[in-house]
Automatic annotation (TrEMBL):
Organism, scientific name: Microbacterium protaetiae
Gene Ontology BP annotations: transmembrane transport
Cellular localisation: Cell membrane
The family this protein is said to belong to: Belongs to the binding-protein-dependent transport system permease family.
Name this protein carries in UniProt: ABC transporter permease
One Pfam family matching this protein: BPD_transp_1
UniProt topology in membrane: Multi-pass membrane protein
Length: 261
């Protein structure tokens, strides 16, 4: 019964504000004659008409594929490079100015160069996603590895846990809260860059569809694309929250104990 009440309260808190905003939107658009902001009912109808068609296969799935590949590559590269750099003080000092230089470059400005180098296909779009989404993971991993507990380090060495075994069993679990914080930041960045790359150089995808709707003055269809992007971001966030809760179960358990003390 307690779990049921807790779940009902969580659902109420999660849906309360979105429902309130939709009611405000509905009330504000009742007597509106603006063609730029559709009514909620019209938008729902348009949403299912547009994305329930062949567009789901030709535009939504390719975008999700690019997003998934780009985000996964960014996380894998960020963690691997971050662990290597974080474990070596000299390497950290050597790479810091280089990382700061490339981190300051907005990935969209690299698109013209990448178009010349690797063309306008999926490889270019995925590269743009990786170049933008890798930084939160990389920098958080470096900081997480750098700040591992010195007592844990000495204990691992005392028990002969060194090399790859130490990285796998001590360093990465210790740095996991910061690594996952970086992953949480990189996921929406990857989604934004997926849309931008498709808006600028693509013949399919969500970004391409939204910009085509805007150019053809199909305003409800354009809003339907924006809503779909928001829903994708929401679903990704919820899935990541579940995954993070499972991976960091020990961490949240320790925090609960500290708070209870």
């Amino acid at each position: 019964m307690k779990l049921l009440r807790h779940t009902a309260a969580a659902v109420a808190f999660g849906l309360g504000l979105p429902v309130l905003l939709i009611l405000i939107w509905w009330a504000a658009s009742l007597n509106s004659t603006s063609i730029f902001v559709p009514r909620p009912g019209d938008l729902v109808t348009t949403f299912f008409r547009v994305w329930g068609s062949d567009r789901f296969l030709t535009d939504v799935l390719p975008s999700l594929g690019r997003y998934a590949i780009g985000a996964i590559l960014a996380v894998v590269l960020g963690v691997i490079i971050g662990v290597v750099v974080g474990l070596n003080q000299t390497l950290r000092a050597l790479t810091e100015p280089v990382f700061e230089f490339f981190r300051a470059l907005p990935p969209p400005v690299l698109m013209p160069i990448l178009m010349f180098l690797i063309g306008v296909g999926d490889a270019m779009k995925i590269t743009i996603i990786v170049l933008g989404a890798v930084w939160p993971v990389l920098l958080n991993t470096i900081e997480g590895v750098r700040s591992t507990d010195s007592v844990q380090n000495e204990t691992s060495r005392s028990y002969g846990i060194v090399g790859v075994r130490r990285v796998w069993y001590q360093v990465i679990p210790s740095a996991a809260p910061q690594i996952l914080a970086g992953v949480r930041q990189s996921l929406p960045i990857a989604l934004i860059l997926m849309v931008i790359s498709e808006m600028m150089a693509s013949s399919s995808g969500l970004g391409f569809s939204i910009i085509q709707f805007q150019r053809r003055f199909e305003i409800p269809e354009m809003w339907a694309g924006i809503v779909l992007l928001g829903l994708i971001g929401l679903v990704v966030s919820l899935l990541f929250k579940v995954l993070e809760g499972r991976i960091l179960r020990w961490y949240y358990g320790l925090k609960d104990l500290d708070n209870a003390a």
